[in-house]
Amino acid sequence: MIRIELHAIEVYGYHGVEEDERRDGQRFLFDVDFDVGDDALSDRIEDAVDYREVAALVRELSDARQYRLLEPLAAAVAEAIRVRFPVERVRVCVRKPEVRLDPPAEWSAVTVER
Description:
By secondary structure, the protein is an alpha+beta fold. The chain is built from 3 helices and 4 strands; from the N terminus they run E-H-E-H-H-E-E.
């Protein structure tokens, strides 16, 4: 079993509960890790999950629609990765670094595993 990790895939998205978040947008950071079989040990990209395609899928799903909550956004990304790529397990964490809370917080995050 091989674990692949991609940290802080940065996507500008239009998600949030507040209207101005959906209108103006903000940065979201996606941490994605997934388990694959030993096929990638062949050292051929054709036998592996191409990280470029995973990052492009994250952007594609974020751009496809607006989400009010991080929970369904993270779940949509996890499910799409599970369906599109030969992964045995996938974990997606979506962080919102410009979260507005009182008292302030550095960021908020939601993690989904499939």
